[in-house]
TrEMBL record:
InterPro entries noted in UniProt: CHP03980_redox-disulphide, DUF1858, ScdA-like_N_sf
Domain of life: Bacteria
Record's protein name: Hybrid cluster protein-associated redox disulfide domain-containing protein
Gene3D superfamilies xref list: SP0561-like
Length: 60
């Protein structure tokens, strides 16, 4: 299960297809070095996203 404390790098390693979902939410910089160490919650805050909706989409 994907949670808000996972880093983007960790998410992509365990679920590579999640990149498409992140892009749909406007997170286009999933390959940046800094994004790799950022948690999903931190990224959601930076992008002004609702973390619960993001997690729901990623866990489908």
């Amino acid at each position: 299960m994907i949670n808000k404390d996972m880093t983007i790098g960790e998410l992509i390693r365990v679920k590579p297809e999640a990149v498409e979902t992140l892009m749909e939410f406007g997170m286009g910089c999933v390959g940046c070095p800094s994004a790799q160490a950022e948690t999903l919650e931190e990224a959601a805050i930076v992008h002004g996203l609702n973390i619960d909706k993001l997690l729901e989409a990623l866990n489908k």
